[in-house]
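Now read these lines:
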Amino acid sequence: MAAPIETKVQASTAVAAVSGLALWALGRYVFKGSVPDVVASWVYVLVPGLLTFAAGYLARHSPRPAAPPVITVNTTASTEVAKQVAAAIRASDRRGGYMAGGTAVSDLPPPPPSVTAPEEKTLRPPAAPE
């Protein structure tokens, strides 16, 4: 599956091609070879680079699709992690999935408080099929 090309990349590519052709036409038909080679080589390097950067900088940003939610669980037992993740995914699916704007929350009661807080583990659910 090919992803769409971002607007900034399209603008930069178009300006780079057009500026190269414009510089060639100026050198060939306007200056007719009367510009020193050193100056011409620097112009051929700097002008397209600056114009390409400016076009990419000024072009609008292409929005990215929403990322899947991050599920954070507070436990040290691996079976408890699996239960909490499964419950969070089921809860997210009931609300229409992550594209519906819901937040994945566990249906399980919160874990009992402990003397020291366990290290958090962050898991990402698998990507939705397209």
User: Anything to note?
Assistant: The chain has two domains: 7-58, 71-123. The chain has three helices and two strands. The chain has a mean pLDDT of 75.
